[in-house]
Amino acid sequence: MIFECVGAPGLLRQCIDIAPVHGRIVVVGVCRHEDAILPRIAIRKELTVQFALGYTREEFALVLDMLAARRIDASALVSDVIGLDALPPMFESLRQPNPHAKVLIDPGA
Questions:
Q1: pTM more than 0.85
Q2: What CATH number is associated with residue 31?
């Protein structure tokens, strides 16, 4: 199963390319531009592609509870932790392709 959570043009096509036969792709990221895929690749692999609008309040609460109980380890998603003084340069760097997944802001750092 692959979750596409970014929404950048070309990512859905990359997901289709790397998905295994009978794989499932859940598209959560919102691509605000036209995008192109090659349906025959998805057909040949018999992929399931599902688009998700969001989550319910109950699902959000469940995930928060699981994070608090350390049943979910989200540390791999955090690419950097910065203080308030680093906000302007970080926002500037995020305007271009970069290696960041999620940047956390620690006001005490």
A1: no
A2: 3.40.50.720
